[in-house]
Specification:
This protein has 388 residues and is of the alpha+beta class. It has three domains: 237 residues, Amidase signature (AS) enzymes, CATH 3.90.1300.10; 48 residues, no CATH class; 89 residues, no CATH class. Helix content is 29%, strand content 13%. Strands 1-4-5-7-6 form a five-stranded mixed beta sheet, covered by helices on one side. The longest helix has 19 residues. This is Amidase signature domain-containing protein. Pfam families: Amidase. One of its GO terms (molecular function) is catalytic activity. InterPro entries: Amidase, Amidase_dom, AS_sf.
Length: 388
């Protein structure tokens, strides 16, 4: 598919079923630059069912991150090291549910290189610009789209919702967590740049409406064992009683602030904003307490050790050693090929040295066993995994 040329797919199969034509457009570099380098691909996809189009998300326009499978739409994954983009043959669970609820999907938006950066300048196809401050970061790894809610929300001033882990399943994702469970949702505030409806700041009611449409088990992943059944909970209706006085909804609630979170590498100005929010909630009738979890100070180490084994195995070799039953087989096969081509590692290093580090750290683990920090880090991760 050439950049800048629309493509029409006739008789395409998605989830083993024939679907209507999907219109796909890869913007030229000039076109994309005019829109802050937002796009991986523009699309026009919606259900043709009258019942679906009258659903709870009728009229809403959505976009998804470029590591979420949309059948027939190439996934660039924020990288240029694969010879040809991977084209999934099925929609992610969350995409299917959005369409069933009446939403209209208009694109896949650029993400960081293999989703391995917290900023928005490692995508080789173009640095994604902050929508309200050109030249500044929009946050990553999603560069402002669905995923990585904390940084994009903080950087861009958008409203975000972080569902309980396992509540929303996507079944596809970046090399960090293939397959991944959606643990973040971003909602658009500016020109459809961020995943969600194209509107001005969204209310909690609209967040709840979208969550109701996409939450719940789909039977593919045991990380959803404790989630409710799909469609079993209507988060929107449960909030209707509070819509005229939202403060009533939080009265009597108890919120804990993690003491260590305000002490570890945090800008004092951010800490002050957290304290201001705590004061607001207290004034609204919420009990705000402080708790301590000393292990939080090891969060960076634990995250590094836990994530990078899977990152390396999957992104470099197409292996899913920890969760062999649930993954995108075709994508893994493609991932197992790119490192065999000369110059690809150097190409990766050029755009995102952090990704190179992440991919090779597990490869060299056997040679580093003498490093007590390495062994201790893995020890902490495995003890946590066993609930000890």
């Amino acid at each position: 598919m050439r950049a800048g040329r629309a493509r029409r797919r006739v008789g395409f199969m998605v989830n083993d079923k024939a679907v209507p034509p999907r219109y796909i457009h890869r913007p030229t570099p000039a076109e994309n630059a005019a829109e802050h380098n937002t796009w991986a691909y523009k699309v026009e996809i919606k259900s043709t069912s009258a019942t679906d189009l009258a659903g709870p998300l009728a009229g809403l326009t959505v976009i998804v991150k470029d590591n979420v499978n949309v059948g027939g739409v190439p996934s660039l994954l924020g990288t240029d090291v694969m010879s040809t983009p991977y084209v999934p043959a099925y929609d992610a669970t969350v995409v299917t549910r959005l369409l069933l609820a009446g939403a209209r999907l208009v694109g896949k938006v650029a993400c960081e290189h293999f989703s391995l950066a917290p900023n928005s300048f490692t995508n080789p196809h173009g640095n994604l610009q902050h929508p309200m401050a050109l030249g500044y970061s929009a946050g990553g790894s999603s560069s402002g789209s669905r995923g990585s809610i904390r940084l994009p929300a903080a950087y861009c001033g958008i409203v975000g919702l972080k569902p309980t882990y396992g509540l929303v399943l996507v079944f596809e994702g970046s090399p960090r967590h293939w397959p991944r469970v959606v643990d973040k949702l971003d909602f658009c505030q500016t020109n459809g740049h961020i995943t969600g409806p194209e509107t001005t700041p969204l209310s909690g009611m609209q967040h709840a409406l979208l969550l109701s449409a996409i939450a719940g088990k789909d039977g593919l992943d045991d990380r959803q064992n404790h989630a409710p059944a799909y469609g079993a909970v209507n988060y929107y209706e449960s909030l209707l009683v509070y819509q005229h006085d939202p403060k009533v909804a939080v009265r009597g609630m108890r919120i804990a602030i993690l003491r260590e979170s305000l002490q570890v590498g945090l800008d004092p100005r951010v800490a002050e904003k957290v304290k201001e929010a705590a004061h607001f909630f207290r004034a609204s009738g919420v009990e705000v307490i402080e708790v301590s979890i000393p292990m939080h100070t090891l969060g960076g180490t634990i995250s590094t050790m836990a994530n990078r084994q899977g990152i390396s195995e999957q992104a470099m070799r197409g292996h899913v050693s920890l969760r062999p039953a649930v993954h995108d087989v075709a994508l893994n096969q493609e991932l197992s090929k790119w490192t065999k081509h000369p110059g690809k590692i150097e190409q990766l290093q050029l755009h995102n040295p952090a990704a190179t580090n992440a991919l090779f750290v597990n490869k060299n683990a056997a040679e580093r066993k003498a490093n007590s920090g390495w062994d201790d880090g893995y020890g902490v991760v495995f003890r946590l995994a066993r609930g000890k």
